[in-house]
Amino acid sequence: MAGPVISARELSLVFQTADAPVYALSRVGLEVEDGDFVSFIGPSGCGKTTLLRVIADLEQATSGTITVNGMTPQEARLKRAYGYVFQAPALYPWRTVERNVGLPLEIMGLDNAPERIARNLELVNLKGFEKKYPWQLSGGMQQRVSIARALAFDPKLLLMDEPFGALDEIVRDKLNQQLLELWDRTKKTVVFVTHSIPEAVFLSSKIVVMSPRPGRIIDVIETNLPRNRTLDIRETPEFLSLAHRVREGLKAGHSYED
Amino acid sequence: MSAAPAIAVKPVAREPGNTFPVAVVCLAILLVWYFAAIPMNWVVTGPKIAAGGGGLSNLLAFSWNEARPVLPAPHQIAMELWKSVFTVAPWSVKSLVYHGWVTLSSTLVGFVLGSLLGVALAIAIVHVKFLAKSLMPWIIASQTIPILAIAPMVIVVLGSIGFTGLVPKSLISMYLCFFPVTIGMVKGLTSPEVMQLDLMRTYNASANQILWKLRFPASVPFLFTSLKVAVAIALTGAIVGELPTGAIAGIGARLLQGSYYGQTVQIWAALFMGSFLAAALVWLVGVAERFTLRRMGVKP
Ligand SMILES: Nc1ncnc2c1ncn2[C@@H]1O[C@H](COP(=O)(O)OP(=O)(O)OP(=O)(O)O)[C@@H](O)[C@H]1O
Ligand SMILES: [Mg+2]
Fold first, then answer.
1. B193: which chain A residues are within 8 Å (Cβ-Cβ)?
2. Which of B195, B205, B217 has the CB atom closest to A94's CB atom?
3. Which of residues 107 through 126 in chain A touch B, CB cutoff 8 A?
4. Are the CB atoms for A97 and A145 separated by under 8 Å?
5. ipTM of this model?
6. What is the pLDDT of residues A13-36, one digit of tens each?
7. CB < 8 Å to B213, chain A
8. Which fold would CATH assign to domain B96-295?
9. Which among B202, B205, B218 is the nearest to A84, CB-wise?
10. Where in chain B are all domains bearing CATH 1.10.3720.10?
11. pTM of the entire predicted model
12. Which residues are CB-contacts of A1 (< 8 A; sequence separation ≥ 6)?
Protein backbone atom coordinates (compact mmCIF):
# COMPACT_ATOMS: atom_id res chain seq x y z
CA MET A 1 0.00 0.00 0.00
CA ALA A 2 1.31 3.41 -0.90
CA GLY A 3 1.72 6.11 1.74
CA PRO A 4 1.74 5.93 5.52
CA VAL A 5 -1.04 4.21 7.47
CA ILE A 6 -1.27 7.13 9.89
CA SER A 7 -0.02 10.60 9.20
CA ALA A 8 -0.54 13.47 11.63
CA ARG A 9 0.66 17.05 11.27
CA GLU A 10 0.53 19.88 13.78
CA LEU A 11 -2.21 18.05 15.65
CA SER A 12 -3.57 19.87 18.71
CA LEU A 13 -6.50 19.10 20.94
CA VAL A 14 -8.03 21.26 23.64
CA PHE A 15 -10.78 19.90 25.90
CA GLN A 16 -13.22 22.65 26.85
CA THR A 17 -14.09 21.90 30.46
CA ALA A 18 -16.28 23.77 32.90
CA ASP A 19 -13.39 25.61 34.58
CA ALA A 20 -10.25 25.87 32.43
CA PRO A 21 -9.47 24.47 28.96
CA VAL A 22 -7.27 21.34 29.08
CA TYR A 23 -4.49 21.28 26.47
CA ALA A 24 -4.21 17.55 25.86
CA LEU A 25 -2.19 17.49 22.62
CA SER A 26 0.08 20.17 21.26
CA ARG A 27 1.33 20.22 17.64
CA VAL A 28 1.86 16.49 17.37
CA GLY A 29 3.47 15.19 14.17
CA LEU A 30 3.55 11.45 13.50
CA GLU A 31 4.04 8.98 10.66
CA VAL A 32 3.15 5.32 11.02
CA GLU A 33 4.17 3.12 8.08
CA ASP A 34 2.47 -0.05 6.99
CA GLY A 35 3.69 -2.93 9.18
CA ASP A 36 5.09 -0.66 11.89
CA PHE A 37 4.78 -1.45 15.59
CA VAL A 38 4.61 1.98 17.20
CA SER A 39 4.51 2.54 20.96
CA PHE A 40 3.48 5.74 22.71
CA ILE A 41 5.22 6.09 26.04
CA GLY A 42 4.88 8.97 28.48
CA PRO A 43 3.77 9.91 31.98
CA SER A 44 0.17 9.50 33.08
CA GLY A 45 -2.14 12.18 31.75
CA CYS A 46 0.17 13.22 28.91
CA GLY A 47 -2.38 12.53 26.19
CA LYS A 48 -1.52 9.02 24.95
CA THR A 49 -5.11 7.81 25.13
CA THR A 50 -6.28 11.07 23.60
CA LEU A 51 -3.94 10.67 20.61
CA LEU A 52 -5.09 7.08 20.09
CA ARG A 53 -8.72 8.20 20.30
CA VAL A 54 -8.11 10.91 17.68
CA ILE A 55 -6.70 8.24 15.34
CA ALA A 56 -9.81 6.13 16.04
CA ASP A 57 -12.20 9.07 15.45
CA LEU A 58 -13.47 8.82 19.02
CA GLU A 59 -12.18 12.36 19.60
CA GLN A 60 -11.76 15.24 17.14
CA ALA A 61 -8.58 17.31 16.96
CA THR A 62 -8.99 21.03 17.52
CA SER A 63 -6.47 21.89 14.81
CA GLY A 64 -4.01 20.18 12.50
CA THR A 65 -4.54 17.34 10.06
CA ILE A 66 -4.57 13.60 10.38
CA THR A 67 -5.17 10.79 7.92
CA VAL A 68 -5.69 7.08 8.48
CA ASN A 69 -5.12 4.88 5.42
CA GLY A 70 -5.11 8.13 3.43
CA MET A 71 -8.65 8.98 4.61
CA THR A 72 -10.04 11.09 7.41
CA PRO A 73 -10.28 9.14 10.67
CA GLN A 74 -14.05 9.20 10.32
CA GLU A 75 -13.98 7.59 6.88
CA ALA A 76 -11.53 5.00 8.19
CA ARG A 77 -13.78 4.24 11.15
CA LEU A 78 -16.84 3.86 8.93
CA LYS A 79 -14.81 1.37 6.87
CA ARG A 80 -13.92 -0.53 10.07
CA ALA A 81 -10.23 -0.01 9.42
CA TYR A 82 -8.99 -0.77 12.91
CA GLY A 83 -9.54 -2.87 16.01
CA TYR A 84 -9.39 -0.99 19.30
CA VAL A 85 -8.40 -2.39 22.70
CA PHE A 86 -9.48 -0.03 25.46
CA GLN A 87 -7.60 0.71 28.67
CA ALA A 88 -10.29 -1.34 30.53
CA PRO A 89 -11.83 -4.57 29.19
CA ALA A 90 -15.27 -2.99 28.47
CA LEU A 91 -16.88 -6.43 28.12
CA TYR A 92 -20.66 -6.76 28.02
CA PRO A 93 -21.54 -8.50 31.30
CA TRP A 94 -24.60 -10.31 29.90
CA ARG A 95 -22.55 -12.00 27.20
CA THR A 96 -20.38 -15.06 27.68
CA VAL A 97 -16.71 -14.93 26.70
CA GLU A 98 -17.40 -16.39 23.28
CA ARG A 99 -20.31 -14.09 22.62
CA ASN A 100 -18.24 -11.08 23.66
CA VAL A 101 -15.55 -12.08 21.17
CA GLY A 102 -18.25 -12.69 18.57
CA LEU A 103 -19.83 -9.24 19.06
CA PRO A 104 -17.94 -7.48 16.22
CA LEU A 105 -18.65 -10.44 13.94
CA GLU A 106 -22.38 -10.16 14.66
CA ILE A 107 -22.37 -6.45 14.04
CA MET A 108 -20.36 -6.62 10.85
CA GLY A 109 -22.23 -9.69 9.64
CA LEU A 110 -19.04 -11.73 9.12
CA ASP A 111 -19.16 -15.47 8.62
CA ASN A 112 -16.97 -18.21 10.14
CA ALA A 113 -17.79 -16.83 13.57
CA PRO A 114 -17.24 -20.06 15.58
CA GLU A 115 -13.88 -20.68 13.93
CA ARG A 116 -12.70 -17.07 14.39
CA ILE A 117 -13.79 -17.06 18.02
CA ALA A 118 -12.04 -20.35 18.79
CA ARG A 119 -8.82 -19.28 17.04
CA ASN A 120 -8.57 -15.95 18.85
CA LEU A 121 -9.47 -17.35 22.25
CA GLU A 122 -6.72 -19.90 21.78
CA LEU A 123 -4.33 -17.10 20.88
CA VAL A 124 -4.92 -15.36 24.22
CA ASN A 125 -4.84 -18.67 26.11
CA LEU A 126 -8.49 -18.74 27.07
CA LYS A 127 -9.54 -22.01 25.53
CA GLY A 128 -12.05 -23.69 27.84
CA PHE A 129 -13.50 -20.39 29.12
CA GLU A 130 -15.94 -19.90 26.22
CA LYS A 131 -19.09 -20.28 28.32
CA LYS A 132 -17.93 -18.18 31.29
CA TYR A 133 -19.35 -14.76 32.04
CA PRO A 134 -16.97 -11.80 32.54
CA TRP A 135 -17.55 -11.67 36.31
CA GLN A 136 -16.24 -15.24 36.53
CA LEU A 137 -12.83 -14.18 35.13
CA SER A 138 -9.91 -12.33 36.67
CA GLY A 139 -9.12 -8.81 35.51
CA GLY A 140 -6.23 -10.03 33.37
CA MET A 141 -8.36 -12.70 31.74
CA GLN A 142 -11.03 -10.12 30.96
CA GLN A 143 -8.43 -7.94 29.27
CA ARG A 144 -7.30 -10.91 27.19
CA VAL A 145 -10.91 -11.48 26.11
CA SER A 146 -11.01 -7.88 24.95
CA ILE A 147 -7.84 -8.46 22.90
CA ALA A 148 -9.37 -11.55 21.30
CA ARG A 149 -12.46 -9.44 20.55
CA ALA A 150 -10.36 -6.78 18.78
CA LEU A 151 -8.58 -9.44 16.74
CA ALA A 152 -11.75 -11.36 15.90
CA PHE A 153 -12.57 -9.47 12.70
CA ASP A 154 -8.93 -9.46 11.62
CA PRO A 155 -8.38 -5.71 11.24
CA LYS A 156 -5.22 -4.59 9.44
CA LEU A 157 -4.58 -1.89 12.04
CA LEU A 158 -4.62 -2.52 15.79
CA LEU A 159 -4.93 0.35 18.28
CA MET A 160 -4.12 -0.86 21.79
CA ASP A 161 -4.38 1.32 24.90
CA GLU A 162 -2.25 -0.22 27.67
CA PRO A 163 -3.69 -3.67 27.02
CA PHE A 164 -1.35 -5.39 29.45
CA GLY A 165 -1.34 -2.74 32.16
CA ALA A 166 -3.36 -4.91 34.54
CA LEU A 167 -1.35 -8.12 34.08
CA ASP A 168 1.44 -9.61 36.14
CA GLU A 169 5.00 -9.67 34.80
CA ILE A 170 4.97 -13.32 33.70
CA VAL A 171 1.68 -13.26 31.81
CA ARG A 172 2.69 -9.94 30.36
CA ASP A 173 5.97 -11.36 29.01
CA LYS A 174 4.10 -14.23 27.46
CA LEU A 175 1.48 -12.01 25.83
CA ASN A 176 4.19 -9.61 24.63
CA GLN A 177 5.88 -12.53 22.93
CA GLN A 178 2.58 -13.69 21.39
CA LEU A 179 1.68 -10.22 20.21
CA LEU A 180 5.10 -9.87 18.60
CA GLU A 181 4.68 -13.21 16.82
CA LEU A 182 1.21 -12.22 15.65
CA TRP A 183 2.58 -8.92 14.34
CA ASP A 184 5.49 -10.65 12.58
CA ARG A 185 3.25 -13.31 11.05
CA THR A 186 0.28 -11.18 9.99
CA LYS A 187 2.17 -7.98 9.07
CA LYS A 188 -0.43 -5.94 10.91
CA THR A 189 0.24 -2.35 11.86
CA VAL A 190 0.06 -1.85 15.63
CA VAL A 191 -0.17 1.36 17.65
CA PHE A 192 0.41 0.54 21.29
CA VAL A 193 0.22 2.69 24.42
CA THR A 194 2.31 1.71 27.43
CA HIS A 195 3.90 2.94 30.65
CA SER A 196 6.62 0.32 30.61
CA ILE A 197 10.01 1.09 29.05
CA PRO A 198 11.07 -2.57 28.57
CA GLU A 199 7.71 -3.39 27.01
CA ALA A 200 7.98 -0.47 24.60
CA VAL A 201 11.54 -1.36 23.57
CA PHE A 202 10.81 -5.07 23.26
CA LEU A 203 7.69 -4.70 21.12
CA SER A 204 8.26 -1.67 18.98
CA SER A 205 9.81 -0.87 15.67
CA LYS A 206 9.29 2.79 16.60
CA ILE A 207 8.95 4.38 20.05
CA VAL A 208 7.23 7.72 20.43
CA VAL A 209 8.23 9.43 23.69
CA MET A 210 5.70 12.00 24.91
CA SER A 211 6.02 14.84 27.41
CA PRO A 212 3.59 15.71 30.23
CA ARG A 213 0.64 17.94 29.43
CA PRO A 214 0.24 19.38 26.92
CA GLY A 215 1.20 16.16 25.15
CA ARG A 216 4.05 16.79 22.76
CA ILE A 217 6.35 14.33 21.05
CA ILE A 218 9.86 14.67 22.44
CA ASP A 219 11.62 11.87 20.66
CA VAL A 220 10.92 9.23 18.05
CA ILE A 221 13.24 6.23 18.33
CA GLU A 222 13.60 3.65 15.55
CA THR A 223 14.64 0.43 17.29
CA ASN A 224 15.83 -1.66 14.32
CA LEU A 225 15.74 -4.85 16.39
CA PRO A 226 15.12 -8.03 14.36
CA ARG A 227 11.43 -8.70 13.70
CA ASN A 228 11.45 -12.22 15.12
CA ARG A 229 13.12 -11.43 18.44
CA THR A 230 12.64 -13.35 21.69
CA LEU A 231 12.58 -12.20 25.30
CA ASP A 232 16.32 -12.93 25.62
CA ILE A 233 17.00 -9.81 23.62
CA ARG A 234 16.31 -7.79 26.74
CA GLU A 235 19.80 -8.66 28.05
CA THR A 236 21.63 -7.35 24.97
CA PRO A 237 23.54 -4.03 24.91
CA GLU A 238 21.41 -2.73 22.00
CA PHE A 239 18.26 -3.26 24.02
CA LEU A 240 19.71 -1.62 27.11
CA SER A 241 20.95 1.41 25.23
CA LEU A 242 17.52 1.86 23.61
CA ALA A 243 15.88 1.61 27.05
CA HIS A 244 18.36 4.19 28.31
CA ARG A 245 17.49 6.58 25.49
CA VAL A 246 13.75 6.26 26.24
CA ARG A 247 14.39 6.91 29.93
CA GLU A 248 16.46 10.00 29.15
CA GLY A 249 13.69 11.26 26.87
CA LEU A 250 11.09 10.83 29.60
CA LYS A 251 13.30 12.63 32.12
CA ALA A 252 13.90 15.53 29.75
CA GLY A 253 10.15 15.86 29.30
CA HIS A 254 9.63 16.06 33.05
CA SER A 255 12.27 18.71 33.72
CA TYR A 256 10.57 20.89 31.12
CA GLU A 257 7.53 21.35 33.33
CA ASP A 258 9.28 21.91 36.69
CA MET B 1 -18.25 -46.69 54.15
CA SER B 2 -18.50 -44.05 51.52
CA ALA B 3 -15.36 -42.12 50.59
CA ALA B 4 -15.03 -38.84 52.41
CA PRO B 5 -14.56 -35.81 50.15
CA ALA B 6 -10.92 -34.83 49.87
CA ILE B 7 -11.66 -31.22 50.64
CA ALA B 8 -14.14 -30.31 53.29
CA VAL B 9 -16.87 -28.28 51.65
CA LYS B 10 -17.94 -25.35 53.70
CA PRO B 11 -21.64 -25.67 54.38
CA VAL B 12 -23.65 -22.83 52.96
CA ALA B 13 -24.71 -20.69 55.87
CA ARG B 14 -28.47 -20.25 56.02
CA GLU B 15 -29.59 -16.68 55.89
CA PRO B 16 -31.07 -15.76 59.24
CA GLY B 17 -34.83 -16.15 58.76
CA ASN B 18 -36.99 -13.06 58.85
CA THR B 19 -40.08 -15.03 59.83
CA PHE B 20 -39.75 -14.03 63.46
CA PRO B 21 -39.63 -10.22 63.02
CA VAL B 22 -42.46 -10.39 60.49
CA ALA B 23 -44.56 -12.46 62.91
CA VAL B 24 -43.91 -9.99 65.72
CA VAL B 25 -44.99 -7.03 63.60
CA CYS B 26 -48.14 -8.85 62.45
CA LEU B 27 -49.02 -9.74 66.00
CA ALA B 28 -48.52 -6.17 67.16
CA ILE B 29 -50.77 -4.87 64.38
CA LEU B 30 -53.48 -7.40 65.29
CA LEU B 31 -53.33 -6.40 68.94
CA VAL B 32 -53.62 -2.71 68.18
CA TRP B 33 -56.42 -3.45 65.72
CA TYR B 34 -58.48 -5.49 68.17
CA PHE B 35 -57.95 -2.87 70.83
CA ALA B 36 -58.89 0.00 68.52
CA ALA B 37 -62.09 -1.78 67.49
CA ILE B 38 -63.49 -1.27 70.99
CA PRO B 39 -63.61 2.56 71.15
CA MET B 40 -64.21 2.93 67.40
CA ASN B 41 -67.32 0.77 67.47
CA TRP B 42 -68.58 2.32 70.70
CA VAL B 43 -71.16 4.50 68.95
CA VAL B 44 -72.86 1.41 67.57
CA THR B 45 -72.17 -1.09 70.30
CA GLY B 46 -72.40 1.10 73.40
CA PRO B 47 -76.19 0.85 73.83
CA LYS B 48 -76.16 -2.89 73.14
CA ILE B 49 -73.44 -3.49 75.70
CA ALA B 50 -75.37 -1.43 78.24
CA ALA B 51 -78.54 -3.36 77.45
CA GLY B 52 -76.67 -6.60 77.81
CA GLY B 53 -75.65 -5.59 81.31
CA GLY B 54 -72.06 -4.44 80.63
CA GLY B 55 -69.07 -6.42 81.72
CA LEU B 56 -65.86 -7.28 79.92
CA SER B 57 -67.22 -10.35 78.13
CA ASN B 58 -70.13 -8.31 76.72
CA LEU B 59 -67.80 -5.46 75.74
CA LEU B 60 -65.56 -7.77 73.73
CA ALA B 61 -68.36 -9.87 72.27
CA PHE B 62 -70.26 -6.86 70.94
CA SER B 63 -67.22 -4.81 69.87
CA TRP B 64 -65.71 -7.63 67.84
CA ASN B 65 -68.80 -9.18 66.32
CA GLU B 66 -70.94 -6.21 65.30
CA ALA B 67 -72.60 -6.77 61.90
CA ARG B 68 -72.07 -3.17 60.73
CA PRO B 69 -69.06 -2.02 62.68
CA VAL B 70 -67.12 1.16 62.08
CA LEU B 71 -63.94 -0.91 62.31
CA PRO B 72 -64.51 -4.64 61.86
CA ALA B 73 -62.31 -7.03 63.82
CA PRO B 74 -59.70 -8.97 61.84
CA HIS B 75 -61.45 -12.31 62.23
CA GLN B 76 -64.64 -10.83 60.78
CA ILE B 77 -62.74 -9.80 57.68
CA ALA B 78 -61.04 -13.19 57.48
CA MET B 79 -64.41 -14.92 57.69
CA GLU B 80 -65.93 -12.65 55.06
CA LEU B 81 -62.92 -13.36 52.79
CA TRP B 82 -63.29 -17.08 53.35
CA LYS B 83 -67.01 -16.95 52.66
CA SER B 84 -66.78 -14.88 49.48
CA VAL B 85 -63.79 -16.72 48.05
CA PHE B 86 -64.35 -20.37 48.90
CA THR B 87 -68.02 -20.91 49.65
CA VAL B 88 -69.61 -19.35 46.56
CA ALA B 89 -69.15 -20.25 42.90
CA PRO B 90 -66.25 -18.24 41.42
CA TRP B 91 -68.50 -16.79 38.68
CA SER B 92 -71.26 -15.56 40.98
CA VAL B 93 -71.52 -11.85 41.76
CA LYS B 94 -71.10 -12.73 45.43
CA SER B 95 -67.65 -14.12 44.79
CA LEU B 96 -64.54 -12.05 45.37
CA VAL B 97 -62.78 -14.31 42.89
CA TYR B 98 -65.14 -13.05 40.22
CA HIS B 99 -64.66 -9.39 41.18
CA GLY B 100 -60.91 -9.91 41.53
CA TRP B 101 -60.77 -11.37 38.04
CA VAL B 102 -62.72 -8.44 36.54
CA THR B 103 -60.26 -5.98 38.06
CA LEU B 104 -57.26 -8.17 37.27
CA SER B 105 -58.12 -8.47 33.59
CA SER B 106 -58.25 -4.71 33.05
CA THR B 107 -55.14 -4.34 35.22
CA LEU B 108 -53.20 -6.74 33.01
CA VAL B 109 -54.35 -5.17 29.75
CA GLY B 110 -53.49 -1.70 31.09
CA PHE B 111 -50.15 -2.93 32.44
CA VAL B 112 -49.09 -4.48 29.14
CA LEU B 113 -50.18 -1.44 27.12
CA GLY B 114 -48.66 0.99 29.63
CA SER B 115 -45.36 -0.86 29.73
CA LEU B 116 -45.14 -0.95 25.95
CA LEU B 117 -45.95 2.76 25.78
CA GLY B 118 -43.39 3.45 28.52
CA VAL B 119 -40.64 1.56 26.73
CA ALA B 120 -41.50 3.15 23.38
CA LEU B 121 -41.41 6.65 24.87
CA ALA B 122 -38.06 5.92 26.55
CA ILE B 123 -36.54 4.66 23.30
CA ALA B 124 -37.78 7.78 21.51
CA ILE B 125 -36.46 10.08 24.23
CA VAL B 126 -33.03 8.43 24.26
CA HIS B 127 -32.67 8.57 20.49
CA VAL B 128 -34.14 11.94 19.61
CA LYS B 129 -32.44 14.65 21.58
CA PHE B 130 -35.14 17.30 21.23
CA LEU B 131 -37.79 14.89 22.50
CA ALA B 132 -36.00 14.68 25.84
CA LYS B 133 -36.58 18.41 26.27
CA SER B 134 -40.01 18.70 24.66
CA LEU B 135 -41.70 15.47 25.75
CA MET B 136 -40.44 15.10 29.31
CA PRO B 137 -42.35 18.09 30.80
CA TRP B 138 -45.61 16.73 29.34
CA ILE B 139 -44.91 13.28 30.70
CA ILE B 140 -44.29 14.69 34.15
CA ALA B 141 -47.30 17.00 33.93
CA SER B 142 -49.50 14.03 33.00
CA GLN B 143 -48.76 12.51 36.41
CA THR B 144 -49.49 15.64 38.40
CA ILE B 145 -53.15 15.60 37.37
CA PRO B 146 -55.10 13.80 40.10
CA ILE B 147 -56.37 10.60 38.55
CA LEU B 148 -59.56 10.74 40.60
CA ALA B 149 -60.42 13.99 38.84
CA ILE B 150 -59.95 12.79 35.29
CA ALA B 151 -61.08 9.18 35.66
CA PRO B 152 -64.82 10.09 35.52
CA MET B 153 -64.23 12.22 32.43
CA VAL B 154 -62.37 9.42 30.68
CA ILE B 155 -65.12 6.96 31.54
CA VAL B 156 -67.92 9.29 30.46
CA VAL B 157 -66.26 10.38 27.22
CA LEU B 158 -65.35 6.82 26.22
CA GLY B 159 -68.75 5.56 27.31
CA SER B 160 -70.44 8.10 25.04
CA ILE B 161 -68.62 6.66 22.03
CA GLY B 162 -69.48 3.14 23.02
CA PHE B 163 -66.49 1.97 25.05
CA THR B 164 -67.46 0.61 28.42
CA GLY B 165 -66.18 -2.00 30.84
CA LEU B 166 -62.63 -3.16 30.29
CA VAL B 167 -61.36 -0.59 27.79
CA PRO B 168 -61.72 2.65 29.78
CA LYS B 169 -60.43 1.00 32.97
CA SER B 170 -57.41 -0.37 31.13
CA LEU B 171 -56.73 3.05 29.68
CA ILE B 172 -56.65 4.56 33.16
CA SER B 173 -54.27 1.81 34.29
CA MET B 174 -52.09 2.45 31.28
CA TYR B 175 -52.12 6.19 31.89
CA LEU B 176 -50.81 5.63 35.42
CA CYS B 177 -48.30 2.90 34.77
CA PHE B 178 -46.39 4.05 31.67
CA PHE B 179 -44.72 6.76 33.74
CA PRO B 180 -42.40 4.71 35.99
CA VAL B 181 -41.52 2.54 32.99
CA THR B 182 -40.52 5.57 30.92
CA ILE B 183 -38.44 7.06 33.73
CA GLY B 184 -36.75 3.73 34.56
CA MET B 185 -36.07 2.86 30.95
CA VAL B 186 -34.60 6.26 30.06
CA LYS B 187 -32.20 5.67 32.94
CA GLY B 188 -31.55 2.08 31.87
CA LEU B 189 -31.05 2.80 28.17
CA THR B 190 -28.52 5.50 29.01
CA SER B 191 -26.75 3.32 31.59
CA PRO B 192 -24.00 1.83 29.34
CA GLU B 193 -20.55 3.23 30.05
CA VAL B 194 -18.73 5.50 27.62
CA MET B 195 -16.28 2.72 26.74
CA GLN B 196 -19.07 0.23 25.97
CA LEU B 197 -20.61 2.82 23.63
CA ASP B 198 -17.26 3.77 22.08
CA LEU B 199 -16.70 0.11 21.28
CA MET B 200 -19.88 0.13 19.18
CA ARG B 201 -18.64 3.31 17.49
CA THR B 202 -15.39 1.62 16.48
CA TYR B 203 -17.47 -1.13 14.84
CA ASN B 204 -19.54 1.49 13.03
CA ALA B 205 -22.65 -0.14 14.51
CA SER B 206 -26.08 1.19 13.53
CA ALA B 207 -28.38 2.84 16.07
CA ASN B 208 -30.54 -0.25 15.88
CA GLN B 209 -27.65 -2.57 16.70
CA ILE B 210 -26.58 -0.33 19.57
CA LEU B 211 -30.13 -0.41 20.91
CA TRP B 212 -30.59 -4.19 20.77
CA LYS B 213 -27.08 -5.36 21.56
CA LEU B 214 -26.12 -2.79 24.17
CA ARG B 215 -28.73 -0.36 25.43
CA PHE B 216 -31.59 -2.79 25.84
CA PRO B 217 -29.69 -5.60 27.63
CA ALA B 218 -28.10 -2.99 29.89
CA SER B 219 -31.54 -1.63 30.79
CA VAL B 220 -33.12 -4.94 31.86
CA PRO B 221 -32.52 -4.55 35.63
CA PHE B 222 -34.00 -1.02 35.43
CA LEU B 223 -36.96 -2.34 33.43
CA PHE B 224 -37.93 -4.87 36.08
CA THR B 225 -37.63 -2.38 38.92
CA SER B 226 -40.05 -0.09 37.06
CA LEU B 227 -42.37 -2.93 36.15
CA LYS B 228 -42.83 -3.79 39.83
CA VAL B 229 -43.98 -0.25 40.53
CA ALA B 230 -46.03 -0.15 37.34
CA VAL B 231 -47.99 -3.34 37.98
CA ALA B 232 -49.01 -2.18 41.45
CA ILE B 233 -50.28 1.19 40.23
CA ALA B 234 -51.95 -0.45 37.23
CA LEU B 235 -54.11 -2.27 39.78
CA THR B 236 -54.84 0.98 41.59
CA GLY B 237 -55.78 2.51 38.25
CA ALA B 238 -58.22 -0.28 37.47
CA ILE B 239 -59.88 0.05 40.88
CA VAL B 240 -60.13 3.82 40.57
CA GLY B 241 -61.63 3.32 37.11
CA GLU B 242 -64.41 1.24 38.63
CA LEU B 243 -65.43 3.84 41.20
CA PRO B 244 -67.01 6.70 39.21
CA THR B 245 -69.18 4.57 36.89
CA GLY B 246 -71.12 2.77 39.53
CA ALA B 247 -69.65 -0.36 37.98
CA ILE B 248 -71.32 -3.55 39.09
CA ALA B 249 -68.25 -5.78 38.91
CA GLY B 250 -64.70 -5.51 40.16
CA ILE B 251 -62.93 -4.74 43.43
CA GLY B 252 -63.80 -1.07 43.03
CA ALA B 253 -67.48 -1.93 42.59
CA ARG B 254 -67.38 -4.00 45.79
CA LEU B 255 -65.85 -1.08 47.66
CA LEU B 256 -68.53 1.23 46.34
CA GLN B 257 -71.46 -1.08 47.10
CA GLY B 258 -70.05 -1.74 50.53
CA SER B 259 -70.01 1.96 51.29
CA TYR B 260 -73.56 2.50 49.91
CA TYR B 261 -74.97 -0.14 52.19
CA GLY B 262 -72.67 0.40 55.16
CA GLN B 263 -71.13 -3.05 54.69
CA THR B 264 -67.79 -2.25 56.26
CA VAL B 265 -66.81 -5.90 56.52
CA GLN B 266 -67.35 -6.28 52.79
CA ILE B 267 -65.28 -3.14 52.10
CA TRP B 268 -62.40 -4.46 54.13
CA ALA B 269 -62.58 -7.87 52.52
CA ALA B 270 -62.45 -6.26 49.07
CA LEU B 271 -59.51 -4.10 50.22
CA PHE B 272 -57.63 -7.18 51.34
CA MET B 273 -58.41 -8.94 48.08
CA GLY B 274 -56.92 -5.93 46.28
CA SER B 275 -53.75 -6.06 48.37
CA PHE B 276 -53.37 -9.79 47.81
CA LEU B 277 -53.69 -9.23 44.08
CA ALA B 278 -51.11 -6.43 44.15
CA ALA B 279 -48.69 -8.52 46.21
CA ALA B 280 -49.12 -11.48 43.88
CA LEU B 281 -48.53 -9.34 40.79
CA VAL B 282 -45.39 -7.74 42.23
CA TRP B 283 -44.17 -11.18 43.27
CA LEU B 284 -44.75 -12.53 39.76
CA VAL B 285 -42.75 -9.69 38.22
CA GLY B 286 -40.01 -10.50 40.75
CA VAL B 287 -40.00 -14.14 39.64
CA ALA B 288 -39.76 -13.08 36.00
CA GLU B 289 -36.93 -10.74 36.97
CA ARG B 290 -34.90 -13.44 38.71
CA PHE B 291 -35.46 -15.84 35.83
CA THR B 292 -34.44 -13.30 33.18
CA LEU B 293 -31.38 -12.05 35.04
CA ARG B 294 -30.21 -15.62 35.62
CA ARG B 295 -30.64 -16.33 31.91
CA MET B 296 -28.52 -13.25 31.22
CA GLY B 297 -25.72 -14.60 33.39
CA VAL B 298 -25.89 -11.84 35.97
CA LYS B 299 -23.74 -12.50 39.01
CA PRO B 300 -26.02 -14.10 41.59
N1 LIG C 1 -13.12 14.03 27.83
C2 LIG C 1 -12.21 14.80 28.45
N3 LIG C 1 -12.55 16.02 28.90
C4 LIG C 1 -11.64 16.80 29.52
N5 LIG C 1 -10.37 16.47 29.72
C6 LIG C 1 -9.96 15.27 29.30
C7 LIG C 1 -10.86 14.36 28.64
N8 LIG C 1 -10.18 13.24 28.33
C9 LIG C 1 -8.93 13.43 28.76
N10 LIG C 1 -8.77 14.65 29.33
C11 LIG C 1 -7.54 15.22 29.87
O12 LIG C 1 -6.56 15.15 28.87
C13 LIG C 1 -5.32 14.78 29.41
C14 LIG C 1 -4.77 13.57 28.69
O15 LIG C 1 -5.57 12.45 29.01
P16 LIG C 1 -5.23 11.01 28.45
O17 LIG C 1 -6.33 10.12 28.88
O18 LIG C 1 -4.97 11.10 27.00
O19 LIG C 1 -3.91 10.65 29.25
P20 LIG C 1 -3.02 9.33 29.16
O21 LIG C 1 -1.70 9.74 28.64
O22 LIG C 1 -3.73 8.27 28.43
O23 LIG C 1 -2.88 8.95 30.69
P24 LIG C 1 -2.82 7.50 31.38
O25 LIG C 1 -1.46 6.98 31.12
O26 LIG C 1 -3.02 7.79 32.82
O27 LIG C 1 -3.89 6.68 30.77
C28 LIG C 1 -5.55 14.52 30.90
O29 LIG C 1 -5.08 15.64 31.60
C30 LIG C 1 -7.04 14.42 31.04
O31 LIG C 1 -7.43 14.98 32.25
MG1 LIG D 1 -4.62 6.46 28.96
1. 90
2. B217
3. 107-108
4. yes
5. 0.92
6. 999 988 888 888 888 899 999 999
7. 92, 103, 106-107
8. MetI-like fold (1.10.3720)
9. B202
10. 96-295
11. 0.87
12. A34, A69
